[in-house]
Design goal:
The structure is a single chain. By secondary structure, this protein is mostly beta strands. It has one domain: monomeric porin ompg (Porin). The chain contains three helices and 17 strands. The strands form two sheets. It has a twelve-stranded antiparallel barrel. The protein has a three-stranded antiparallel β-sheet with strand order 1-2-3, with no helix packed on it.
Length: 378
């Protein structure tokens, strides 16, 4: 188990290093500043307009007036106006009713990072594949998962999950994330196993941007959450003493922000190894903009079990949706593939649908899965 654990960590480090090296080595031309300006919600059609020249500092576009910059001011580069621009599009209620004089939501929370507004959030592995951007958002999502008919216990059936994730930016790089809550329905095909429903565990933590380059559209983040055993036992929640989730995620734009690659990896580490299993995952998503609003996406996820628990005497696990604490899963691997569509409305709001199936012979509790979600951002 220890050897496999360090191999998984080394694989994660190598892939992250290759990802960053490839991004830094990319050759970006003079349109990078224009791309960054457009992503920040500012139109820079005439950077040489009277009154000074355009400059870009740490994600903030400014005008240099008479050789002296106006620090931190967001100004319209198409003219000489010094008026602050409103970066949110189509959010009048939020702008007028909930934003205080300091420009923060409820006076506390910063805006989402608009320098990466052409990216979209990961669709599959929704509880653990974290968006690398700093966001202030509410994300509601629903999943329907079909269970394989040859599963020795459940013998088919399905499970549903409905929840709302919340993320709030404290600074441009640091955010608080609440990634799991909600309600579960479990409907086995085996008549000997009763239907059940109940609340899910609750997980929350922090995320921090290590690398944030608006010119090259490269972003890398790390973070961690802790899952409280607060859910209902009858839907395999509330077991043990909690679970740590340590993760990294990264994003890179290609072809002048038409295509994007988002990658995430992490470890699920139970506080009590006898009640939960230990899992490593590596998730990827590739997306292409079909129009200014529509995206097509595909994903690939690898779930690897480093160690099992002692809660159930079975050889299958629940991937991202459940942690059964099965005692015979160490070394098991499941690879899944997903395809989907996303529609973006407003500046950064989005909604989408995704369908996922396993590629490996091992399927555990996943015959297929259908997701739908909506993200509302400030």
């Amino acid at each position: 188990m220890t050897c496999t654990f360090w191999k998984s960590l080394r694989f994660c480090a190598v892939m992250t290093a290759a990802f960053v090296d490839g991004a830094v080595a990319a050759n970006f031309n003079s349109s990078s500043t224009e791309r960054a300006a457009a992503s920040a919600g500012i139109v820079a059609q005439n950077a040489s307009a009277p009154g000074g020249r355009a400059i870009f500092r740490d994600g903030v576009l400014e005008r240099e007036l008479g050789g002296a910059a106006g620090p931190g001011k967001l100004v319209d580069l198409t003219g000489t106006s010094d008026e602050t621009l409103r970066l949110s599009e189509g959010a009048d209620f939020v702008e007028t009713a909930l934003v205080r004089d300091n420009g923060r939501l409820f006076g506390l929370f910063a805006r989402s990072d608009y320098a990466f507004s052409d990216f979209i959030s990961p669709a599959s592995n929704p509880l653990f594949f974290e968006d690398p951007r700093t966001l202030t958002e509410v994300r509601v999502h629903f999943a329907n998962q079909w269970i394989p008919g040859d599963n020795p216990v459940f013998q088919g059936g399905n499970a549903q999950f409905a929840a709302a994730q919340v993320r709030v930016a404290l600074t441009q790089r640091l955010s608080v994330i609440a990634t799991k809550d909600g309600y579960l329905w479990l409907n086995p095909g085996n008549p000997a196993v009763a239907d059940s429903e109940g609340t899910a565990d609750v997980a929350a933590g922090l995320k921090y941007n290590l690398i944030r380059n608006a010119y090259s559209q490269t972003i890398v983040s790390v973070g961690g959450t802790f899952e409280l055993d607060s859910g209902a036992h009858r839907v395999f929640q509330g077991r043990g003493d909690g679970e740590f989730h340590l993760f990294s995620s990264a994003g890179q734009a290609f072809f002048d922000n038409i295509a994007h690659w988002t990658m995430g990896s992490g470890l699920r580490l139970p506080a009590n190894g006898s009640t939960r299993s230990t899992m490593f995952y590596w998730s990827n998503q590739w997306d292409v903009k079909l129009t200014d609003r529509f995206y097509v996406l595909s994903g690939l996820n690898w779930f690897h079990y480093l160690d099992g628990g002692n809660a159930l005497p079975v050889n299958f696990e629940g991937m991202d949706l459940f942690n059964l604490g099965s005692n015979n899963v160490a070394g098991n691997d499941i690879v899944t593939s997903s395809v989907g569509l996303r529609y973006r409305f407003g500046r950064m709001n989005e909604t989408g649908i995704c369908y996922e199936v396993p590629l490996t012979d091992r399927r555990d509790l996943l015959e297929s899965r259908l997701y739908a979600d909506m993200c509302i951002r400030f």
